[in-house]
Each structure stands twice: as C-alpha cells, then as structure tokens.
Amino acid sequence: MNANPSSDPPSAADDLEALASRVDRAIEALNSLEPAARERAIAAREAIEAFHKAGLTTIVRRLKADPRGKELLFELVDDPGVCALLAMHGIIRTQPPAAPGPPLELVQIQMPGDSSGWHPGPRADEVTDEKPLAFEAGGAKILLLRAKGEIRAFRNACAHVGLPLERGMIDVEASVITCPWHGFRYAADTGECLSAPQCQLEPFPIRVVGGVVEVKPS
Ligand code: FES
Fold first, then answer.
1. What does R_g of the chain's alpha carbons equal in angstroms?
2. Domain layout of the chain by residue ranges
3. What is the pLDDT of residues 153-168, one digit of tens each?
C-alpha cells in the first residue's frame, strides 16, 4: 500500500535533478576539506569513475557488437540519465565539436579601455585560482578562471548540456575544473574537455586594463 497516496510518484526528470543536486552538494562539501583531504577525496572519486568507465565501456562495446543490442543502446541513450552517465565518461558524444573559438589573449594595458567590443568585468585580483568567477557582459554569461597564473575567459556553459560552471570545483594543482552537475572535467587554461575530448569550453578574448578584466564576447 502506498504510504503517501496523495503525492505523485517522482518522474525520471525529478529523480535526475535530485541526483544532480546530490552530486552538487557532495562536490560542495569537498571544497570545504583541507587540501590533503580534498586531494584524497578527488583521487578516490577518480578511481571509482575509472572503475565505472571500464565497466560501462565493456557494456556499450558488447551492445554495439550485436544488432539487437545496438538498437537497445540507442533507446537507452534517449534516457537523460543514461545519456549523462555515458557522456560524462566520454563514451558517447552529446553534441558536435565546438567550432574553435578566437585565440586567448591576455595583455596588460595601462590606458583606459577602447570601445570596440571590450566589456569590463571584475578586478583582476578578484580572480583567484581556487574559485571560478562569473559575470555577464555584452549579453553573454562569462566564466573567469585563473590558471597557471593567467586569467582565462570562457562562455559560462558546460559543453555537456550547457549548465553554468561557476560552482565547479577546481583542482589547482592539476589546473582542472569539474562541472558541478555531472562531472565533466576541463583544463582550466585551455577549456579542453578531459571527459569528452571532442568537447570544449568556448573561449573569449580577454585583457587586463588598469587592473580590471575586460572580455570581448563574440
Ligand atoms: S557535466 Fe552536465 S552540465 Fe556539466
């Protein structure tokens, strides 16, 4: 008998949202750990992910090798949870490769900024290597990262399903940011996706004028 007859059963989307929130909270909790404990937690998570990836890869390979299995696999990939899981491990591709963006540019200029599409953001010293910083300019949502001593700007949209990355966890030593939603990992200096190598964060040109970050969204 249903213990709570008045409530509707949760939908698959609700379940997925709840699971994504749970991942979000767990990653948030990792951020509050001491560096050594955080490193161990990240190493444990990576080991578990590698274990899962090996098993999933075997399953997908076997399904693809059989015509009926292949059909079933295509049906399964329509499920958002399965799709997210396989994409997170780089086993399937969720979108075509992003077109290469404009080259990154970091310059120090003491003169006031020009008006040719550059938009001012936060002060450069507000951008730390431990925390992403998000702001909006020129109609674009922008994510700033400091990686290997330099500030980088990307569109604040994960290449997986486009969710924002400002709550992502940064592994400073490895210079990697992990998406808080489903765990896609990116090189913080280039935006290259390490989870699905065909994906990439979209970079924007960036410069620092009088200590203020300026970005030129395309
Ligand atoms: S990994 Fe899914 S939105 Fe980033």
1. 20
2. 12-88, 108-215
3. 999 999 888 899 999 9
Q: Lowest mean pLDDT: which of 72-76, 103-107, 149-153, 173-177?
A: 103-107
Task: Give the residues surrounding ligand 1 with Cβ less than 6 Å away.
Answer: 158, 160-161, 163, 179, 181-184
Q: Which is the closest atom of ligand 1 to the Cα of 163?
A: 3
Ligand 1 centroid, distance to 4 Cα (angstroms): 33
Q: What is the pTM of this model?
A: 0.52
What is the topology classification, in CATH, of domain 108-215?
A: Rieske Iron-sulfur Protein (2.102.10)
The helix-helix angle for 80-88 and 35-64 (nearest 10°) equals 110
3-state secondary structure of 197: coil
Q: For ligand 1, atom 2, which residue shows the shortest CA distance? A: 182
For the stretch 110-123, pLDDT in tens is 333 445 789 999 99
Q: What's the CA-to-centroid distance between 207 and ligand 1, angstroms?
A: 28
CB 175 within 8 A of CB 189: yes
Q: Please tell me the distance between residue 80's alpha carbon and the centre of ligand 1 in angstroms.
A: 12
